[in-house]
Write a structure and sequence with these properties.
- Helix 2 (13-23) runs parallel beside helix 9.
- The relative contact order is 0.14.
- Helix 7 (149-160) links the parallel strand 3 (114-120) and strand 4.
- The protein folds into 2 domains: 3-253 and 261-293 and 301-321 and 337-349, TIM Barrel, CATH 3.20.20.80; 380-507, Jelly Rolls (Sandwich).
- The protein has 13 helices and 19 strands.
- The two termini are 38 Å apart.
- By secondary structure, it is an alpha/beta fold.
- 24% of the residues lie in helices and 23% in strands.
- The protein has an 8-stranded parallel β-sheet with strand order 6-5-4-3-2-11-10-7. Strands 12, 14, 15, 16, 17 and 19 form a 6-stranded antiparallel β-sheet that branches. Strands 1-9-8 form a 3-stranded antiparallel β-sheet.
């Protein structure tokens, strides 16, 4: 995948909107479906509508995974390329030491909840013995032609309690029917059916948008509605990336927006005319909604590789991202209302390289150490302004994921003060909204009382599922959150204060 090529195909949002009702399972609340907007709507009415958009349960479950792994592995690993030509001989694929259990162990130590495998990349080589092509591992020397990487990974994930995701590239440089749209669409659907019926539950299906055919290349009209319907039929709980459930964040650097809304505005339901621009700086503000005709819940997934490339290259063994860089990415993705999809490419042995594996172990150790103790848990919480909210403010620090505090409808600002009962030193602040109730907060500040005065120590715009803010160490007994602006009402489910020790101190323990 390349950043400048990903943007060449962005899934039509019209397709997403048109198909949402088709793809629902059982009775579907109208609040997670697209909500029409009217030119006559006032700003207040627009914000009320935005506040009523909710995530589908599968979107909520997806967001709660927070950190997941990406495995890029194919013939490219053996040709030292990022994009295969489709002409590679299967005989070059022979990872003699391949061990999916090692992949899963490394990902689990990093704190990942799922692994997505490139079952077929743009070269068309299949990591399972597909009956629809001979360009598969069945034609390779690996495991004597009897192997199945997808099956081995599915088994390893199941044993360790991780979920499985699968990437199936629509662009296929090997398949002869590519460019004959009806025939290739059926070929692609056939392969989707193989992957979604033979390996147990699949939590996410990844459909990349890259295509480098060039002006004289083959032209394939992808049947996105049929692709999506196939996933819904066979794996109804799976989210579809770049489809009806999850959007690309707009870059491959690992950074979500400072202001990342999940309810976003779109303009039309016409499949042939509307395409969302995931690189737009503003997708969900009032200004963006004013220009839209519909609003729907469409959260961002942030993808990045631990190395400069997506596939393994020996020349990059000394270019694995540092702990500091990985932490910055984590706080700027998971900590900005997104999910982090971190790529770790296995080497030619079929193993995650020692450099990557150790970096991921260290990364996971720092994250676990930092968030092991919430210094705000059990604090005395009280509202300092406005009428009492629904539920007690103590729900924000009770350590439970399913409890929350809200203001009354129409109350868009509030201040909640926390007495930590003793002086505490912290350098990370966490805020979470109960997004099952929607996303509401537009702007907030965090203050600490020091030397008898309140001092601002952090500020932000959107919160959504999770907002993480880092700062120099702060020592205080009293801390307060000032919700300066929100849509319809304000709501919080969790507030946390944490202390990250120096990295080397953590790693030496």
């Amino acid at each position: 995948m390349k950043f400048h090529d990903r943007i060449r195909r962005i899934v039509p949002l019209s397709c997403i909107l048109t198909l949402l009702s088709i793809f629902s399972c059982g009775s579907t609340p109208t609040t997670w479906q697209p909500i029409p907007l009217s030119p006559e709507d006032t700003d207040e009415q627009l914000l009320i509508k935005a506040a009523h958009v909710l995530p589908h349960p599968r979107q909520l479950q997806w967001q709660q995974r927070e950190l997941i792994g990406f495995i890029h592995f194919t013939v490219n690993t053996f040709t030292d390329k990022e994009w295969g030509e489709g002409t590679e001989s299967p005989s070059i694929f022979n990872p003699a030491e391949l061990d999916c259990r090692q992949w899963v162990k490394v990902c689990k130590e990093a704190g990942m909840k799922m692994i997505i495998l490139t079952a077929k990349h743009h070269d068309g080589f299949c990591l399972w013995p597909s009956q629809y092509t001979d360009h598969t591992i069945a034609a390779s020397p690996w495991r004597g032609g009897k192997g199945d990487v997808v099956a081995e990974l599915a088994q390893a994930c199941k044993k360790e309690g991780l979920e499985l995701g699968l990437y199936l590239s629509p662009w296929d440089r090997h398949e002869p029917t590519y460019g004959d749209s009806p025939k290739y669409n059926q070929y692609y659907i056939n392969q989707l059916e193989e992957l979604l019926t033979q390996y147990g539950p699949v939590a996410e299906v990844w459909m990349d948008g890259a295509c480098g055919e060039g002006p004289n290349g083959k032209r394939q009209e992808y049947d996105w509605p049929a692709y999506f319907a196939t996933v819904r039929r066979l794996q109804p709980d799976a989210v579809i990336f770049n489809g009806p459930d999850v959007r690309w964040v707009g870059n491959e650097a690992g950074y979500a927006r400072e202001t990342e809304w999940s309810p976003i505005g779109v303009n039309t339901l016409d499949v042939l005319e509307y395409k969302i621009n995931p690189q737009a700086k503003d997708l969900g503000s009032l200004e963006a909604i004013r220009k839209a005709n519909y609003i729907l819940w469409y959260p961002a997934e942030t993808d990045v590789s631990i190395r400069p490339g997506w596939f393994y290259h020996a020349a990059e063994d000394d270019k694995v991202k540092t702990i500091e860089k990985l932490l910055d990415i984590y706080y700027s993705s998971v900590g900005r209302n997104s999910l982090l999809l971190l790529n770790i490419p296995p080497d030619r042995r079929g193993l995650i390289h020692e450099a990557d594996a150790q970096r991921l172990r260290d990364f996971g150790k720092v994250i676990r150490s930092t968030f092991a103790e919430n210094l705000a848990k059990g604090a005395k919480a009280s509202e300092q302004r406005g009428p009492p909210g629904f539920h007690s403010a103590a729900k924000i620090v009770d350590g439970k994921e399913d409890t929350y505090w809200t203001t009354q409808e129409g109350i868009s600002s509030a201040t909640i003060e926390f007495d930590l009962k003793q002086l505490r030193t912290f350098n990370v602040v966490m805020l979470q909204e109960p997004i099952a109730q929607g996303q509401h907060i537009v702007a907030f500040t965090v203050e600490a009382r020091q030397d008898g005065q309140w001092r601002q120590i952090a500020q932000g715009t959107t919160i959504g599922y999770k907002r993480l803010l880092r700062m120099d160490p702060v020592t205080a007994q009293q801390v307060r959150i000032r919700i300066n602006q929100s849509r319809l009402f304000a709501a919080l489910s969790n507030f946390g204060l944490f202390y990250q020790k120096p990295i080397q101190e953590i790693l030496s323990q």
